[in-house]
Structures are given as C-alpha cells and as structure tokens.
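Re: iron/sulfur cluster structure - here you go.
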Amino acid sequence: MNQIRHDWTKEEILNIYHQPMMELLFEAAKVHRQHHDPNVVQVSSLLSIKTGGCSEDCAYCPQAARYHTGVEGHGLMSIEQVKEKANQAKAIGASRVCMGAAWRNVKDGPEFDQVLEMVRTINKMDMEVCCTLGMVTERQAERLAEAGLYAYNHNLDSSEEYYKEIISTRAFQDRLDTIENVRKTNITVCSGGIIGMGEKVEDRAGMLLALSRLNPHPESVPINTLVAVPGTPLENEQSVESWELIRMIATTRIVMPETQVRLSAGRTSLNPEAQALCFFAGANSIFAGEKLLTTPNPDLNEDMKLFTSLNIHPQKPFIKKSQPETVEAEDSQIEALGEKPRWTRPGHIIERNEKAKIRK
Ligand code: SAM
Ligand code: DTB
Ligand code: SF4
C-alpha cells in the first residue's frame, strides 16, 4: 500500500506530471488498484437547485450575474421538484445527487431551511447527498450534517497564485476556511478544480499541493476541464488536449491514492477511448445525466454503452462511509444563529472580468 502523504513538494508533483506518459499511466494504475476496485465507477447526478444571478465574478462561470451568457436563471427549486429529479437519478443508477446553488455563501433563513429539507428528503431515499452552496460557517455545516448531508463540494479551483487571476470577489483562504468548517463535522469533503483556464502546469501542481496538504485528503477530488461559455471572460480560452487531462488525473491519483477522483466537466469533448484512459489513470467517478449545472454532459445511453464495453459497474451508495442519520427539523438540536456572514472581499480587480461586464 502506498503511504498517504501530506508533505508532497511542488517539485515532486511536477516530476510525476511530466513523466513519460507510459510510466505515468503505469504508476497511476498501480496505485489505483491498491486502493480501489478498477472496475467500479461512482455515478453522481448534478442538480442545479438555484440557477444564475450569482454576485461573484468567477471568470469561468456562466452563472455570474455580471456576464452575459444567456443562462436562464431560476429561484430555489421546490422540495417536490428535487424529489422527482432524485428519483430520476436513482433510476439511471446514480448513487449520489449533488445539488448546486449559484450562491456566494449560505445565509440562514427560509431558503437554507428548504435546502436542509431537500437533504433530508434525498438521504431518506438512500442516496448519498452532496451540496455545493458556496461558503458556509461552522454552524451551517453542522446543520447540514444533522440533516444527513454526506458530502460538501467546495473547489479550490486552481493554485493560490492563479486564483487571484480568475476571481476577485473572494480569496483562496475563504475556500480553505469553508473546507475547514465542513471538516469539523461528519460530512465528507469534495474539493478539486478546473484545468484549461490559461493556468500553467505549475498552477495545476500548486492546486494538487494545496489539496494534498488537507489532512485528511478530500474524500473526492473533481477534475473539471473548462467549459468555455460565450459571454464569460474565459470564452476564448483554448481547449486543453485530452493528454493533459489524463496527466492531471493520473497525478491526482498518485498524490491522493485513496480519494475518489471525479472526471467532471468537459467529458463532452472526450471520445470513449480518452475516457477509458482517464479511468485507467485513476478516475473513478463521473457526473451522469444530460446536463451538468447549466452546460451539456454526454448522452446517458453513450455512458451506459461505455460502461458495458469496459465492464465497469456503478458504485453502490455508502460503500466508503456509512449513511448519515437524518434529524428531522422539529427535533433539531442546533439553533440557527441567523447568520448572514459577509466573508472577505479582496480589493483587487481583474481587468478581463471588468471587460466581460460590458454587454456586446
Ligand atoms: N456557487 C458555489 C461555489 O462557487 O462554490 C457552487 C456552484 S459552482 C458552479 C461549483 C463549481 O463548478 C466551481 O467551483 C467550478 O469548479 C465549477 N464550474 C463552474 N463553471 C464551470 C465551467 N464553465 N467549466 C468547468 N467547471 C466549472
Ligand atoms: C464540480 O467540480 N463540477 C460540477 C460540480 N462540482 C458542482 C459543476 C460543473 C459545472 C460546469 C458548468 C455548468 O454546467 O454550469
Ligand atoms: Fe457564483 Fe459559484 Fe459561479 Fe462563482 S462558481 S459565479 S460563486 S455560482
């Protein structure tokens, strides 16, 4: 078994990344087999429970209110709608539902109460529930845990250095603080990032370094390739070659042997062979279903065909950690503090973000 390390150096990570491809694939596949069943892949379903109109300026994001991306926004979904979508996810063999909200951070109040009820509803359907709602305080994380949340997704997105080039409305440290708040509860941590935003390979290594310093490592690490959406400041970013994605996945696998590595946004640009190489290199999770949050995802039939061709089976829920209990709202032991935290707002401006605000 490989040792689980939190003391990787950037140089070591870069050396892994730059190895000849065949050596890299062989090493990653070896590590993968020592810690996971290579024929099992987790299938998660994404659900945008609140879409668009976000106050942040994340340069990659079609949901930021300030860019003109044509995303049709909607307010918070009803519990009935969420239940219906979760049933559909279960029917396609998903073991996890990940609910995303275009929020900067969670605010206590009726909307958060509604999200807590969504968590209870899905957990009671015996599926793993994940949320990605922006920044959360310790108390808010405790309330999510009490409702039965299995995972919280909060991506570092890039290296600390490059973070300042893509987002000005919050700081890298805010991300780490939220992850720390989640880590204090029983909720598992899902944190990864995006490649193809104009970053250097050093930034990819820097992101993996920051993730590997988290102790324990995140239970899941999503690796997204940028979906360059017209209207965002990154609309003209060149797409990354699949070889780069394969290298990134293999490196993630070697640096964090036990984590579930998720081949996330960007699968529509990969052919079946490239996806198979990603699985060989250590990816063992995907998002399935026609849509990610707002952008397209591969056709479900194609995914099923790929799983059949490769003899890959979907992972059952609660294999890695037991199902959390759900405490009903009326039995809650945790008092809401009425928190509407402001968090930090770094002072810097990103010029290309400013330009993208001007309607063309
Ligand atoms: N608002 C919350 C937040 O920012 O944490 C949760 C939702 S946000 C859309 C979740 C993640 O989706 C981001 O951290 C980013 O990694 C990913 N994402 C957003 N837009 C993307 C794009 N165009 N391409 C690839 N990944 C993207
Ligand atoms: C993650 O790392 N990727 C997912 C999920 N976590 C929330 C989101 C991808 C979003 C891609 C752009 C969109 O569909 O809006
Ligand atoms: Fe808002 Fe999240 Fe998109 Fe940033 S990534 S603009 S915080 S929805």
